[in-house]
UniProtKB/TrEMBL annotation:
The keyword Phosphoprotein applies. Its main location: other. It is found in: Cell projection, Lamellipodium; Cytoplasm, Cytoskeleton. It comes from the Eukaryota. This is Abl interactor 2-like isoform X4. It comes from Solea senegalensis (Senegalese sole). One of its GO terms (molecular function) is SH3 domain binding.
Length: 166
């Protein structure tokens, strides 16, 4: 938090003011170079001096812009980190509220059912007069009893009648 405050209150405004000062300095350097070139008898030397001033000025401005851009990026990173922490905290609070609402809803659902009056007597009642069960008698199985019913009767008769055996 202190780093964010330092960036907002000191470093970024200082970088901005340095760029504004650099603008006025560049304007003065440009006037000097122009006057120096016009008044100079040695134009080549004046041109070289102008190139030197231009290179130094551009390097200084690029350094200031780079420093200011890095400070702004650092500020944005800090703010993004704070937003992530706030989002995480908000998600935790939301989950806590959802859990509480679920508990309340389940408690309310638990109140709704009522006890059912059930009769404890036997539901299956045996008949008053029971029929006497017949005694089981074992009979042998007659496999030829159903030979005349269903498929195969015509087929079987056809082969019996013609006398063909396959």
């Amino acid at each position: 938090m202190a780093e964010l405050q330092m960036l907002l209150e000191e470093e970024i405004p200082a970088g901005r003011s340095a760029l504004v000062d650099s603008f006025s300095n560049l304007d003065q350097v440009a006037e000097y170079c122009e006057n120096n070139y016009v008044q100079s008898t040695d134009k080549q030397r004046a041109l070289e001096e102008t190139k030197s001033f231009t290179t130094q000025s551009l390097a200084s401005v690029s350094y200031l812009i780079n420093t200011l851009a890095n400070n702004v990026l650092q500020l944005l990173d800090i703010q993004a980190s704070q937003l992530r922490r706030m989002e995480s905290s908000l998600n935790h609070i939301t989950q806590t509220v959802d859990v509480h609402n679920e508990k309340v809803a389940r408690r309310e659902i638990g109140i709704l059912p009522t006890n059912k009056n059930t009769c404890r007597s036997h539901k299956i009642v045996a008949p008053a007069d029971q029929e006497r069960a017949l005694r089981y008698i074992r009979k042998p199985i007659d496999y030829s009893a159903l030979d005349h019913v269903g498929h195969g009767v015509k087929w079987l008769l056809r082969f019996k009648g013609t006398g063909l055996n396959h």
